[in-house]
Amino acid sequence: MAKKTVSVREVLRAPSGAVSLADIDPRDTPSAPGDKDATKAQLAADGAELAVLQEKLYAEGATGGTRRVLLVLQGMDTSGKGGVIEHVAGSVNPQGLAITSFKKPTPEELRHGFLWRVRRAVPAPGLIGVFDRSHYEDVLIGRVRELATPAVIERRYREIVRFEDQLAESGVTIVKCMLHVSKWEQKQRLLARLDDSTKRWKFNPGDIDERALWDQYQRAYEIAVERTSTQTNPWYVVPSDRKWYRNWAIGRLLLEAVQDLDPRFPPADYDVAAQRDRLIDEAD
Amino acid sequence: MAKKTVSVREVLRAPSGAVSLADIDPRDTPSAPGDKDATKAQLAADGAELAVLQEKLYAEGATGGTRRVLLVLQGMDTSGKGGVIEHVAGSVNPQGLAITSFKKPTPEELRHGFLWRVRRAVPAPGLIGVFDRSHYEDVLIGRVRELATPAVIERRYREIVRFEDQLAESGVTIVKCMLHVSKWEQKQRLLARLDDSTKRWKFNPGDIDERALWDQYQRAYEIAVERTSTQTNPWYVVPSDRKWYRNWAIGRLLLEAVQDLDPRFPPADYDVAAQRDRLIDEAD
What HEC string does B195-237 produce? Predict the structure, then answer.
């Protein structure tokens, strides 16, 4: 049995005030329950617990409850957003999930405000939603690639904070994770994609062009985290060079969020004995 | 190792012409690979194979392919649509799934044609979509509860056939399953829900009212299957009183459909060696 850990939320929560990603080692494994094997075992145990809690949350949502959870995954290419979805979200009943992958906006999406497509993807009550990329793209690539003016980008941080506050008020617990990988590790992962014929489709020559902007992207993440990490909706910076740590840590952040909700199976809102009699006495 | 089975599609495919559900035993287990334990083991093995094929289909979709699969699940209450999603769809990466649960139409949905909400839920290329209930509700409960005139119901069968033909032309392989349970088995399952405090939320007193219309529902299913089972988009009638058989059979129908597509990891559309050199030679 892995040893008991402290709340990973306290350890990974972004500091209030200035954020310096250079001071957070992507290879670190803070508050991991043990070595790689022990941590993987704990991820499996946490996943089983999450599955049970998720069923209760689903039951709540199916009977009038409004609570739900939204896991937001942001990170550079190869940081492992897909891996987290497979290994963390994959442990729960797929009926209880709502996964949305945000790609380059379509022409229709561009005709609306940047939050339009995001509002449509907010998970329904009882579900665990997962955003693979999110509204943060509009202040990350949006900033680095100058897809909007500086004034517009500035306004977006405030719009995001207000939007997420509204979500919280409507019953959405948001868990925002930045998957923090090193530039060196990304290179290894890109090379691995090139070397594996089953992974070459994931590689895009443009990925190397983006690497030339690595420092600008890191700075854009720092600013985004600084401006949008709030008491209600904090950011977590998850060291992600070690996949086993990243998967466990994000799974744990999600589990702790659902544990806090303490969902329960709803009691019957009908007379159980009377319904039982109706069924038994039914004419066949 | 379980013994080799014949194609379950041939065995479960609805007959052309008149369909008599009374002649199909819901407790039957046609072409099962063995007893309950052996069949469960085969389901796990099939699930692993499906997961691998699904990743290839996903890769195809991510690189311009248009093919996808849509599993349509229809059946009376307690027939196990949710169980199939958990045990069959649960074996693949959740990123590759698009699950839609069709409830009583909303006021907005009612303002549109009955296929409006269905078109919006068609899986994107590369995905396996699952419909938990579907457009068939509009010719099932729609017929039994007389939610539309007979003339409208008649027209819907033709609209459904045309709609599904269009889907097939746009790359969607549809696998339509009717989960065939007996009235007796449904009673046992409803009693089990009443007797289990973690399942009472799934029970609704209206479920017993619907049982009074059992024969009309069976007839509505027969007519729907007769009118909409085509060469391209056939119906499968899956005996579902034994959950282990139902899960294996539907998993197998899905697996065979994806096997037929024979998806492959796309080759690189760039010069692998050149990109490798770019990465290696990168200034740091």
Answer: HCCCCHHHCCCHHHHHHCCHHHHHHHHHHHHHHHCCCCCCEEE
CATH 3.40.50.300 assigned to A8-281: yes
Name the residue of chain B whose CA is nearest to A188's CA: B279
The string of pLDDT tens digits covering residues B236-267 is 999 999 999 999 999 999 999 999 999 999 99
Residues of A in contact with B201 (CB under 8 A): 59, 62-63, 265-266, 268
SS3 B92: coil
Q: What is the mean pLDDT of chain A?
A: 96
- Asked whether the predicted pLDDT for residue A148 surpasses 80, the reply is yes
pLDDT tens digit sequence for A50-96 = 999 999 999 999 999 999 999 999 999 999 999 999 999 999 999 99
CA angle in degrees (0–180, nearest 5) for B99-B101-B107: 135
Question: Nearest Cα to A58, choosing from A70, A68, A46?
Answer: A68
Picking from B101, B211, B276, the nearest residue to A194 by CB comes out as B276
CB of A205 less than 8 A from some CB of B: yes
Q: Can you give the residue ranges of every domain in chain A?
A: 8-281
Within 10 Å of residue A283's Cβ, how many Cβ atoms?
A: 4
Per residue in A228-257, pLDDT tens? Answer: 999 999 999 999 999 999 999 999 999 999
Q: Are A106 and A44 in contact (CB under 8 A)?
A: no
Instruction: Name the residue in chain B with its Cα closest to that of A273.
Output: B194
CB contact under 8 A, A94 and B97: yes
Angstroms from A53 CA to nearest CA on chain B: 12
Q: For B81, which residue in chain A has the nearest alpha carbon?
A: A95
Beta strands B68-75 and B128-132, pairing class: parallel
- Ranges of residues in chain B whose predicted pLDDT is under 50: 1-2
User: In this structure, what are the phi and psi dihedrals at residue A63, rounded to the nearest 5 degrees?
Assistant: -125, 30
Please give the Cα distance from B7 to B253 (Å, whole number).
8
